Amino acid sequence: MSHEEQLLFSAVDALLEQIAQDPLPPPAERKRLREAAGLSQDQVAKALKSRRESVGNWEAGRSEPRPPKRAAYARLLEGLAARFAPEEPASEPVETQPVATQPVASEPVAADALPAARESEAPAAEPGQVRNARASQSPRYEHGPLAVVDVEGGEASAYCVGGLVLDVPAKSLPALVEWALGDARLGAERLHPSGQDADPLLVLTEAACERFGLPVRLSREEGLAGRLPEDHKVIKQLVRADWKLTRRGFGPWARIYRPAQGSRRSCVQLCVPGWNALDARHWNGASQLPPAELVRLLGTYASRVMTPRGSTAVTGLELMTSLHPPTRASAPDADGRRHRERNPGSLGSEPVECAPCEAPDGHPLLADLPRFHQRGPAEMLFEEAYDWARPLTDDECLKRHLVGIDVNLAFGAAANGAVVGLEAPVHVKSPAFDPALPGSWLVDLSHVDPSHVMIGKQWRRLDGDLLPSPFTPKGDRPEGPAWYATPTVAYAVELGYEVAPAEAWVRPVNGRYLDGWYKRLRDAYLATMADLGVDEGLTPDAFLAAMEGYRDRDPQLAVVLSAIKATVKGGIGKLRERPRGGGWRPGRPWPALSRPTWRPDIRAAVISRARINMHRKMVRLAAATGQYPVAVLSDCAVYASDGPSPLDFLPYPGGKPLPGGFRLGVSPGMVKHEGSQTTLWAEGVREEYGPELNLARYIKDGAVTAKDDGE
Question: Whole-structure pTM over 0.90, yes or no?
Answer without folding.
Answer: no
